[in-house]
Design goal:
Blueprint lengths: L1 E5 L6 H11 L6 E4 L10 H11 L2 E2 L3 H8 L7 H9 L2 H9 L4 E3 L3 E3 L26 H7 L7 E3 L7 E4 L5 E4 L14 E9 L2 E9 L3 H10 L6 H5 L10
Parallel strand pairs: 1-2, 2-3, 5-6, 6-8
Antiparallel strand pairs: 1-9, 4-5, 7-8, 9-10
Length: about 240
């Protein structure tokens, strides 16, 4: 089995297009999507159309949930912008997304942790320029009761994989559409592969037209998105 894993597109259709073109060259059996697909000031409508055509196994992220469960006046400015761009069929798709799912009983999908789409698993969020892998006990505890060889998560936008002592692997593919404190604007996703009974992961890093994405964000009234989109050096503070 060979799977492409995407996450945290955040409405960046430019980055998603580059990633899907690369995936098409990787001979994968399927693509899975870990959520936070649309919330961003670039092109959420086109992003959703691309994902509907892709028809990947998808779980909801915290922003996906907020778009359909939170009153419009309670949403942040980026989520309000996103919701205003969507057609009813896009909202129906968001409403249909489960919190978790699995692929053939072997690969478990969630956005944050199995218990929460808003909790972090393999990394804490940035505080200034620092983030840390949580301690082994807390990472392992979040996997308790989920007996899958591979567990997938997103949410932090930081690509990382770990192996638990029992052999299970936890993988975060990073973010397709929004890089923060990476020192690179490039889109990120992962390829999972099973050979025999062993799973391995390859993290993919791709250049795309990030200048076009930044211009679109500025045109839509969100100039703070320029720096993370074109440099990848700054943090996420104040973006949403």
């Amino acid at each position: 089995m060979r799977l492409a894993v995407i996450s945290d597109i955040h409405g960046n259709s430019f980055a998603l297009e580059a990633v899907l073109e690369d995936i098409a060259r990787q001979s994968v059996d399927a693509t899975v999507n870990l959520g936070d697909a649309l919330s961003g000031p670039i092109d959420p409508r086109r992003t959703c159309d691309m994902l509907l055509e892709l028809n990947a196994a998808t779980v909801r992220g915290n922003h996906d949930r907020w778009l359909v469960e939170t009153g419009v006046f309670e949403l942040g400015p980026v989520d309000r912008f996103t919701l205003a761009q969507l057609e009813p069929r896009h909202v129906v798709w968001l409403e249909s997304l489960p919190a978790t799912r699995n692929v053939q009983g072997e690969v478990f999908l969630c956005h944050g942790t199995p218990a929460s789409d808003n909790d972090v698993w393999l990394d804490n969020f940035w505080s200034g320029r620092k983030t840390t892998l949580p301690d082994e006990a807390s990472v392992t505890a979040a996997a308790e009761g989920y007996d899958f060889p591979v567990l997938l998560c997103g949410h932090t936008h930081l690509a990382r994989s770990v192996r638990l002592r029992d052999g299970r692997m936890i993988v975060n593919p990073g973010s397709v559409g929004l890089q923060t404190v990476h020192g690179s604007p490039d889109a990120r996703y992962a390829i999972l592969e099973k050979n025999g009974d062993k799973w391995s992961v390859t993290q993919r890093v791709l250049g795309y037209d990030h200048e076009a994405a930044a211009r679109r964000a500025e045109e839509n009234g969100f100039p703070k998105w320029r720096e993370p989109l074109v440099t990848g050096w700054v943090g996420p503070e104040g973006l949403f």
